Amino acid sequence: MSGGIPLTIDDALEALASGGITSEQMVSHSISVFQEDAHSPVPLNAFLEMYDDALERAREADRERAAAQKAGTLAALLQEKPLLGLPFAVKDNMSVQGKRLTCASHILEGYIAPYNATVIDRLVKAGAVPLGRCNMDEFAMGSSTEYSIYGPTRNPIDRAYVSGGSSGGGAAAVAANQALFALGTETGGSVRLPASYCGIYGLKPTYGVLSRWGIVAYGSSLDQVGVMGRTPRDIALPLSVMCGADFYDDTSADLPGADSLRNLQAFAKSDSAAFGGLKIAVPRQFLEAQGLSEDVRAVFDTTQKWFRDRGARVEQVDLPILNASLASYYVIALSEAASNLSRFDGIRYGHRVDPGEGYDELYVATRSEGFGAEVKRRIIIGNYVLSEQFSGDCYKKGMTVRARIQREIAALFQTHQVILCPTCPTAAFKLGQKVDDPLEMYLSDLYTMFVNLARIPSVSVPAGYTKPAGTEKAASPPALPVGIQFAGAMFSEPFILALAQAWEEDHPGCGIPVKDGTI
Ligand code: GLN
Predict the structure, then answer these.
(1) In sequence order, which residues have a C-beta less than 8 Å from that of residue 176 and are 6 or more positions away?
(2) What pLDDT is stored for residue 442 in this prediction?
């Protein structure tokens, strides 16, 4: 344990069971770290707000546990509420009833969520405690959590670096030991990328496995809730209580084998046969891509070797269509965003600027003032792509490319079980380095987007560190975490998480060194 919150869910459950810690103590710790951070000259800025009822919920969980212990019914209670008393971080685009939700945007200032997102509801029913609202890129558009009206979230490993985005607040909260796990959302990599930059695990599930009800839409055909934690189990446990079809989301689906999420031992050390049958595909296009850093390549080589040493076959495969995934993603995501964000008009939600001249003027004034520059850029591109003259050339072509990506990835999974590739071309970059260069920023997601386009699941595992370049001088860059992703066929979450668990057992602590939130 470090600084108040145990590092993993298993540690927390053990400490709660033995009386070594209470839920109230965990939540109080996070609140005091949050308060201290607000006065720091270089704040981490992971949380934007701690929910005012978090402490009371934690106390209630402690009371329930104590009563069940006394009555000898604790086992039954934990069956029903497997996450009893465990604090988690929420992204600022998720509805928690009665709480503020802003998508890190002026346009939603003052908005209060009227109901719980399904994922929040299911976690709360399982006993978990929503701690607070975490920072993000405005409307989840970005890769660094710098496009936020609240200022950037910094990387807990070194505060001169970005945390990654758009779910950077949640990733930093977990990495800095301020929450046991965090919910994020993905449209094109926003859970895996910050997980990789902060040295933790991050899962983007199959499209449909987690309900989108109560989550603010960005690109609806791509959006999916994801989970970040310090170990694969810290992802699997919350996933097991959140997954499953939801009446309120027609695109939601049941996850086959969801029960096995609570036992991830499919690739236990003693069982080399399990690895012997594995065929792993490495897309050649990603290795040849410009911008892949030497450090990431070196970590990736070690990861491939780990699979080979355990008996798996690792093969390079040709998927030229992947070269078009970034273009296809931006055409589709931005078209859907332009349409989804049209609802923020100053009438129905949040902020309103009314020059008193009629509706058109009200819309224009509200949206001009309410949205940040990056969001406006994307709305303009999206509307351009959808306009009559260009939709044939752009939107339909983007959709055709997507369909081909889906077909070719599905065909690849007929012969291989895993696609292995780096999560990002580089490790975390410095604050401010890419913020004025949208294209450079977009390229950070080069390796993550095909997963969203193909709707498959993928987990980013902390796989190593960049070498500190040059000498030992104080000025040399710090060693930063590097993530590698294991992507599987649709609905293969139990399988890829079990693989990640095998990785974790061989590389414990491959995530960031243990420090508390006051680093
Ligand atoms: N960085 C990508 C974008 O800005 C992905 C964001 C996300 O997954 N929400 O669109």
Answers:
(1) 33, 44, 46, 156, 515, 516, 517, 519
(2) 92
Q: Is the confidence at residue 475, as pLDDT, over 50?
A: no
Q: Which of 489, 427, 502 has its CA nearest to residue 457? A: 489
- Protein residue with least CA distance to atom 10, ligand 1: 141
Question: Is residue 2 predicted with pLDDT exceeding 80?
Answer: no
Q: How many of the other CB atoms lie within 10 Å of CB of 379?
A: 22
Give residue 263's pLDDT: 86
Q: What share of the chain is helix, strand, coil (3-state, %, to 5)?
A: 45, 15, 40
155 vs 510, residue with greater confidence: 155
Cα 315 to averaged position of ligand 1 atoms, centre (Å): 29
- For residues 295 and 467, the answer to whether their CB atoms sit within 8 Å is yes
pLDDT of residue 349: 86
57 to 54, 111, 230: CA distances (angstroms): 5, 23, 24
Distance CA 8, CA 263 (A): 16
Q: Is the dihedral of CA 343, 344, 346, 351 positive or negative?
A: positive
Check residue 512 and give its pLDDT: 57
Predicted local distance difference test score (pLDDT) of residue 138: 98
Domain boundaries, the chain: 323-397
CA dist 33 and 3 (Å) reads: 9
Distance from C-alpha of 203 to C-alpha of 487, rounded to nearest angstrom: 10
- Alpha carbon of residue 34 to chain centroid: 21
Please indicate whether residue 325 is annotated as part of the active site.
no
The one-letter amino acid at 90: V
81, 91, 99, 204: which is the annotated catalytic residue?
91
Give the separation between CA 501 and CA 267, rounded to whole angstroms: 8
The phi-psi region of residue 459 (left if phi > 0; otherwise alpha if psi is between -120 and 50; otherwise beta) is beta
272 is catalytic: no
Active site includes 190? yes
pLDDT digits (tens, 9 = 90+) for 331-358: 999 999 999 999 999 998 888 999 999 9
Q: Compute CA 427 distance to the chain's CA centroid, rounded to the nearest angstrom.
A: 16
Catalytic residue among 23, 30, 148, 190: 190
Within 6 Å (CB) of ligand 1, which residues are found? 140-143, 166, 186-190, 218, 333, 445
